[in-house]
Write a structure and sequence with these properties.
binds zinc ion; 3-stranded antiparallel beta sheet; 12 strands; 268 residues; alpha/beta; 7-stranded mixed beta sheet; Rossmann fold
Length: 268
């Protein structure tokens, strides 16, 4: 998402759709944002809040330079009507960012099982499927796609909540979760599985500069933030070891197992 936001001109207006708390800080990118959600969204510096249904947006035609749907499309009950609305409120030449889970992965199955559906009413199983439905209803074509990896952060002790299904995971400590994610990542690299894949980030429309599509595999088990492996190495956050190197999350300080992003370039 950052890549799309950085390519927008200063002061551009972005619709942050389906993110009550905001999926980015507009001032950080020199942008303005409207956060729209079925639940009352939170306003913030440079961000207005509008309670609205994605299938019936209260905005004029072509008013937004970009639309961001970060982990929200899978929650939209009226997907096709919502996409048509996105196409309507985007200006000609506007761009769209979509991040969604792959419903066929272990991560999303676990999330839906433990969270009683987790509010995921749409199931996407390939980038082609998403590009097809987005293209039909918005007129936008897919410019780039990136595989997203999971850290199973919804299983972290601090994120589990009080549901009885989550209480069954009382034995799963932060350290053990980091090892499980490390093992899944290792299997994905060496056995060709997709056990630690979350889904995809898809970029629609025309972009001035190419979009970097190398996945970020160092996702923190506690805060869920993703960090580029080369950046972690550059800032000295990696404890290099022959076996099982680790990194300390720059966001929250948690130790996680470290992987090189380039080793996962072929996972889609
Ligand atoms: Zn973290």
């Amino acid at each position: 998402m950052d890549q799309l936001l950085r390519q927008l001109p200063e002061g551009a207006l972005v619709l942050d759709l389906g993110s009550a708390t905001g999926s980015f800080e507009p001032r950080q990118f020199g942008l303005r944002a409207v956060r729209a959600d079925l639940k009352p969204p939170q306003a913030g510096p440079g961000a207005w809040a509008v309670q609205a249904d994605a299938a019936c947006l209260p905005f004029r035609v072509g008013v937004f330079d970009a639309v961001v749907c970060s982990h929200s499309l899978e929650h939209f009950a009226k997907l096709e009507a919502s996409l048509a609305e996105i196409g309507r409120v985007l200006r000609p030449g506007g761009v769209l960012y979509v991040a969604v889970p792959d419903a066929s992965t272990l991560t999303d199955r676990l999330y839906r099982l433990l969270g009683r559906g987790g509010g995921h009413v749409q199931r996407f199983t390939s980038p082609q499927q998403i590009a097809g439905v987005v293209g039909r209803h918005t007129g936008l074509s897919l410019a780039a796609q990136r595989t997203l990896f999971s850290s199973l952060s919804f299983l972290h002790p601090s994120a589990r909540g009080r549901a009885w299904r989550m209480r069954l995971l009382g034995w799963l400590t932060e350290g053990l979760l980091a090892w499980i994610v490390g093992l899944l990542r290792w299997l994905d690299r060496w056995a060709g599985t997709r056990l630690s894949v979350y889904g995809w980030a898809l970029y629609f429309g025309s972009f001035k500069a190419p979009i970097e599509t190398l996945p970020r595999t160092n996702m923190c088990v506690r805060c869920g933030a993703g960090h580029a492996s080369e950046w972690l190495l550059r800032i000295g956050r990696v404890r290099p070891r022959r076996w099982f190197p680790k990194f300390r999350c720059p966001n929250c300080g948690t130790w996680n197992l470290f992987t090189h992003d380039k080793d996962y370039a072929a996972v889609v």
